[in-house]
Amino acid sequence: MRRDPSLTYQGALTILGQYDRSRLDKLNGLLGGVILGAGVAAATGTPLGGLAAIWGWVDQKNEATSLVRRILDTASGRLHDTAGHERHRLVVAAHTVLVGAAFFEALQEHLGADALRRLAVTEDERRALLFGDRRLVREDLLSDLYEGPVPAPSPTCGFEENTERVRVWMDRIRQRSREFFNGLAAWETVGRPLTDELVEAAVERYRSHYLRMAASVPEFLVWASLGEHAATRSGIRDLRDEIEAAFTGQKAALSRLESLLHLMAAEREQRDLCAVLHRANRGALDERIVSHDAMRASPELTFPTLREAFVNPATGWPPREWTPASPTSRGGGDAPSTTTSTCCSRPI
């Protein structure tokens, strides 16, 4: 799949340079023809082109970065007269150039004017970078810088989310640049290692440039507004694992509960409900026909249970002869049986 030219630094500079040809030609000359030529291949094929494509960004005169800023300003002013696909390419290219400009401005500020003056490439180093063992280091830096895609915002990735991807791109360029400069004898005199502080400074400069662009370019403003929802989307992604774990735990608990309910249902199916009802009714028949309070108020009387007092409607007789309980069996003490009266269960 062909890469969108507006996402590469070389392609973006070419797109924006159409609206400021004179400055683009001058920038192309400073960078050894890497922009308007056949890209990195053309720059590396010339004795000085490959080094100029790198060295032009750290020149103490800051000429390349100044030209880029002016090209960017000119192209931004032309956005009002464009629409459709042309406008989209121009907006994305402007963002790409903005990212690169922020990195090189931060790099120049990080190194300082004194260090930039001391930087130089000896003839032996030049040969090593062009044809020797340092050639791959130079080509990797050129490829990542000019031909690698620069992350851009989109409807699904707002400004804040894309800033983290821009940080990764800048860190990769920092590492490539460090590998390049570490091979130079003059680098030892600089005393300004390319640490993570450079990336942080470049990201802050990118933010500043971006917000200034958002004041005049609606697309940049829309991408920035999408960042308001970035925290929500990030929070949802972070909670996804916790939610899945919670659902997994609930699923296990519900499975155990389901198994328990199955056992209880099986037990209920095996029970004889008629027998349960029969036992409940029989239990009521063992109750006395009067309350316990009445029995205590009349200890000389003995009262039968419902079972004993029951009279079969068909015969008019109880199911069996009733024998009154002794006073001692009712808890009535040692009262003589001759003084004890009974309550007959026969109907009156």
Describe the structure.
It is a single chain. This protein has about 350 residues and is mainly alpha-helical. The protein has 15 helices and two strands. α4 (about 50-55) packs across α8. It is rod-shaped, with a radius of gyration of 48 Å. Residues about 45-50 and about 330-348 have low confidence and may be disordered.
Beta content comes to: under 5%
In helices, the fraction of residues equals 55-70%
Instruction: Name the shape in a single word.
Output: rod-shaped
Q: Please, how many helices?
A: 15
Q: Please give the alpha-carbon distance between the first and last residues.
A: 110 Å
Question: What is the β-strand count?
Answer: 2
Whole-angstrom Rg: 48 Å
Written as H for each helix and E for each strand, in order along the chain, the element string is HHHHHHHHHHHHHHEHE
Largest sheet: 2 strands, parallel
Give the spatial strand order of the biggest sheet.
1-2
Unreliable spans are: 44-48, 328-348
- Calculate the mean pLDDT score and round it: 75
Instruction: Output the structural class.
Output: mainly alpha
